[in-house]
Amino acid sequence: MGKKEIIQKNVNKLIKMKQPNFTNKHIHSKKSISDLISEAKIEKDIKKRWTIIVDIQARANHETFKHCKKLCLSSSYKDRVLGIDILAQLGVYHRPFKEETVPIFIDLFKTEKSLTVLSALFIGCGHLVKTDDHRFIPYLLKFIEHKSRNLRFGVVFGIMGHEEHLAIKALIQLTEDIDDDVRNYATFALGSQVNSNNCQVIGALEKRLLDNNDEIVDEAILGLALRKKFLKITKPILSILKNGEPKTLLLEAAGKVPNDEIYFELKNLYSLSKNDSSINTEWLSSLREALSEQRHMRN
User: Fold this and answer.
1) Which of 83, 112, 129 is the last residue of a domain?
2) pLDDT confidence band for 28 (50 / 70 / 90)
3) Which structural domain, as residue segments, surrounds residue 293?
4) What is the pLDDT of residue 12?
5) Closest among 93, 78, 91 to 19, alpha carbons compared
6) Residue 165 · residue 201 · CB < 8 Å
7) Pair 111, 232 in one domain
C-alpha cells in the first residue's frame, strides 16, 4: 500500500462515512430508534456501527433528533460521540435539523474535554454546514496549535472548502504542520478545495514544493497548476516525468501546464505504458486524461 493509500485510509477512518450507503440491509429496518441507538452503542465493528447510524440518519424526525440531543448531553463520552456522528448527517443529503444542531455543537466546543469527542465534533462540523456557513470557524481555530495531531487534522476537515479569510489563513499555517498527514491534508485543502489566489496562498503552496514528502509536493504542484502559476512548477513536473514515478496527482497537474516538453514526456510515457498489463488502470486513465488536456490546449 502506497503513501497516498495509507493517508486516504486514515482520512476515511477519521471522517467515517462521508456519503452514506443506501443499499445496505439496515435501511428500512423496522426496529425503533431506541433499539437502533442501543445497538449502535454496543457495536464494536466500525462498519456495522456505521450501517446502523446510516439507518438512524435516514429517519430525520423529531423523535430521532430528541434522542441524539440526549446523547450529546450524556456523561458518557461514547454516547456524545454517537450523538455527534448521527446529528452531523441527520437527514443524509438534507439537514432538516441543522439549525437546532448548531447550538448543540457550539455548546460542546465550550465544555468538551475528551479528545475523542472533540475529534468527532470537528468532523461533524465539516459535514453539518455548507462552506458558506462560517459559524464553527472561530471555535475550530482555537485548536489549530493543539498538541493532538488528530485534532489539528480535524480542524483542516472542519474548515476545508471555506473561503473565509481566517479559514484560509489557518490552512496556510497548517501547511507547515510538523505532522505529515496534517500538512498533506492542509496542502490538499488549500491547493484544490478553495479558489483563493492571493500571494499568501501562492507563497504557501510554493513552500511545499520543497517538502520532503512527495505526496505533499504533488498536492502543491496541482494547487499551483489550478491557479495557472506555471513558471514555478514546469521544472519539477519535467523532472518527475523524466526521472521519477509520477503519481496521478502529478499527472493531473501536468495536463494543465501548456508546455511542449511536458506534452512530449507525457506522450513518451504513454507509449511505454499503454500495452503494459502490469500498469494500474486508474493511473493509465489519469495519464490519458492528462494527454487529452494537453491536446485540447493545442486545438
Assistant:
1) 129
2) low
3) 228-299
4) 46
5) 93
6) no
7) no
pLDDT tens string 96-132: 999 999 999 999 999 999 999 999 999 999 999 999 9
| Domain-located, residue 216 | no
End residue of a domain, out of 103, 129, 155:
129
Contacts (Cβ under 8 Å, ≥6 apart) of 50: 16, 17
Query: What does the CA dihedral 66, 68, 72, 76 come to, rounded to 10 degrees?
Result: 120
Convert the pLDDT of each residue in 126-147 to its tens digit. Answer: 999 999 999 999 999 999 999 9
Give, in order, the Cα–Cα distances in Å from 78 to each of 43, 118, 152, 153.
11, 12, 21, 20
Q: Domains in the chain: how many in total?
A: 2
Residues in the chain: 299
What secondary structure, in 3-state letters, does the chain show? CCHHHHHHHHHHHHHCCCCCCCCCCCCCCCCCHHHHHHHHHHCCCHHHHHHHHHHHHHCCCHHHHHHHHHHHCCCCHHHHHHHHHHHCCCCCCCCCCHHHHHHHHHHHHHHCCCHHHHHHHHHHHHHHCCCCCCCCHHHHHHHCCCCCHHHHHHHHHHHCCCCCHHHHHHHHHHCCCCCHHHHHHHHHHHHHCCCCCCHHHHHHHHHHHHCCCHHHHHHHHHHHHHCCCHHHHHHHHHHHHHHCCCCHHHHHHHCCCCCHHHHHHHHHHHHHHCCCCCCCHHHHHHHHHHHHHHHHHHC
- Mean pLDDT computed over every residue of the chain: 91
User: Could you tell me the pTM of the whole model?
Assistant: 0.88
Residues 38, 41, 46: CA angle, nearest 5 degrees: 130
